[in-house]
Design brief:
The chain contains five helices and four strands. With 145 residues, the protein is an alpha+beta fold. It has one domain. A four-stranded antiparallel beta sheet has the order 1-2-3-4, with helices on one face.
Length: 145
């Protein structure tokens, strides 16, 4: 799936995301956000076995999420990447700033909170890229020319 195909799919995914936010599926962690987006994006091609997280942070840092379509040896067009910064408090972490510390999946009814979470989820969704897009990034040597 190309980046443009991913972007075009948002209009079909957005109502499901809004319902998921109301049901508390997107308020517990960034992992939940990315995992739920991957499920919606890949549909029946999603598998928990094809979902990985790289995190070298501690109280704060950047997580890199990799997920792939469930197939034999997915290639760079079937493998996706997205990264997200996280912090340790509501002042430096957007998710904590929106919902605070949530234990489990609590339904969300406040419209401002729903809209703020939808904005965060959409921002993360729009950063999902197939690995093949990384090959299109010019190298530093090419940029100097």
């Amino acid at each position: 799936m190309t980046y443009n195909e991913i972007r075009a799919k948002w209009k079909d995914i957005e109502p499901k995301v809004i319902q998921g936010i109301k049901d508390g599926l997107y308020s517990n962690s960034y992992e939940d956000i990315v995992r739920n987006l991957a499920k919606l994006l890949l549909e029946e091609a999603y598998s928990d076995e094809m979902f990985e997280i790289i995190d070298w942070g501690d109280w704060q840092g950047t997580r890199i999420y990799l997920f792939a379509e469930s197939c034999y040896q997915p290639d760079e067009n079937e493998t996706y990447i997205v990264s997200n910064y996280y912090g340790s408090c509501s002042g430096c972490d957007q998710l904590l700033g929106i919902v605070g510390y949530v234990d489990g999946q609590e339904p969300i009814t406040d419209e401002d909170t729903i809209n703020d979470l939808l904005s965060l989820v959409r921002d993360i969704y729009e950063r999902i890229r197939p690995l093949s897009d990384l090959q299109k990034i010019p190298s530093l040597a090419e940029q100097k020319d």
